[in-house]
Amino acid sequence: MESFDIIIIGGGPAGLAAAVAAKEEGCNSILIIERDKELGGILNQCIHNGFGLHTFREELTGPEYAERYIERVKELNIEYKLNTMVIDINSKKQVTAMNKTEGHFTIQAKAIVLAMGCRERARGALGIPGYRPAGIYSAGTAQRLVNIEGLMPGKEVVILGSGDIGLIMARRMTLEGATVKLVAELMPYSGGLKRNIVQCLDDYQIPLRLSQGTEEYFSCDTLLLSVGLIPENELSQGLGINIEKITSGPIVNDQLETSEEGIFACGNVLHVHDLVDFVSEEASLAGRNAARYVIVSAEMRESLAKINLIELISGKGVRYTVPKYINPIKMDEVVTVRFRVDKVYREGSIRVTFDNNEVWKRRKKIMAPGEMEEVKIKRQDVMSESKLQNITIEIIE
Questions:
Q1: Is the peptide bond between 63 and the residue preceding it cis, with omega within 30 degrees of 0?
Q2: Could you read off the pLDDT of 284-314 as tens digits, one per residue?
Q3: Which residue spans of the chain are classified as CATH 3.50.50.60?
Q4: Which of 84, 96, 176, 352 sits CB 3.0–4.6 Å from 360 for a disulfide?
Q5: pLDDT digits (tens, 9 = 90+) for 2-16
Q6: Does 122-227 carry CATH code 3.50.50.60?
Q7: Which H/E stretch holds residue 74?
Q8: What backbone phi and psi angles, to 5 degrees, belong to 68?
Q9: Which helix (DSSP H) or strand (DSSP E) does residue 298 occupy?
């Protein structure tokens, strides 16, 4: 059986960043497995700009952002398999996959990084009947048709849901000559970034209707659905990895290690992100920690596993946190904890408490579910609390 130190499942932005970081950490035996015909993942169809402001300090399109990492993967001679579907992972870290040239095969890994990304919630979840209803597309499918295939789904468009892909497609369809009648959102707030509301709707006079409580009629030939993303965690669930109900992604510690030792998760398979820059940052952490896991001896791993973990608790107004646990011995000097709030807060504060003691508080003018928030937990602060059990993050109005 062929073997690698690290196998990374997914060749999108998360998988690429994890592979580069693992190689730079000193791990030479790495394999990326990607089911598509090329590396880059969803970024290949995101031809709009706005990527890379955090990572590269410049504004790039999705394909340009992906190409930076693809070039680095090739420079570092990291192996990858394309057109290859992973169908199973077992507790021995054996990955079973298949493709046209090699058929059905199994590869052994010492560590695995899950970077499968996410998928769009389908029309069936909304109760839209029929097998092939004409004119109804997910926003991502429409994006691929327009940007990759050069096909227009329709000319009179209504968009249901205000996720970022839907907002971006409202602008894209308008630029291609379609009339976007409106974006309709069930919730009292948009699910997308504020900048996308301004740049994709306001700049093109496309109305956004929130909290629909009355009926209105709009004629259209195309309905685009932008009603949420779901992490691709069928492989994770098959392995028995503990899943967070709110995110539908694996529960992880500060090393981004799942409940299965030596298996790490990052990117949209862990929780849905708003910016790809944060995906890359998180994936780099997962790749580095996977490499460190491979290098550390089994005896050392066993001793570190016995350390009592500190639980991160989602307090008032916080839907979830990533990570869910911190290992005080293994943690980096600073751990970034990301989370989303449960509603729109104006002039609220983020508060962090160690057990019942407030250690940090920051006021923010506005917080919304569509934009990810973060706090930094310092190792020196954690280590100063000898019997610390819980860290609570909450919103104070």
A1: no
A2: 999 999 999 999 876 677 776 667 899 999 9
A3: 1-120+228-306, 122-227
A4: 352
A5: 999 999 999 999 999
A6: yes
A7: helix 62-75
A8: -55, -45
A9: helix 298-305
- The token duo for 140 is 């991502």
Buried b (16+ CB within 10 A) or exposed e, 22-47: bbebebebbbbbbbbeebbbbbbbbb
Helix/strand/coil for 333: coil
3-state SS track over 104-117: EEEEEEEEEEECCC
Single pTM value for the model: 0.94
φ, ψ for residue 161, nearest 5 deg: 95, 145
Measured in whole angstroms, how far is the alpha carbon of residue 355 from the centre of its chain?
29
DSSP code of 370? T
| β-strands 136-138, 118-120 pairing | unpaired
Name the nearest CA neighbour of 109 among 259, 332, 260. Answer: 260
For the chain, what is the total number of helices (H) and then of strands (E)?
A: 9, 22
Task: Please name the residue that has the structure tokens 């327009």.
Answer: 146
- Spelled out in words, what is the top-level CATH class assigned to the domain 1-120+228-306? alpha beta
Amino acid at 239: L
Note every long-range contact of 42-46, with CB atoms under 8 Å and residues 24 or more positions apart, other chains counting.
Answer: 42/12, 42/117, 42/140, 43/12, 43/13, 43/276, 44/148, 45/140, 45/143, 45/144, 45/147, 45/148, 46/143, 46/147, 46/168
Tokens of 62: 């999705």
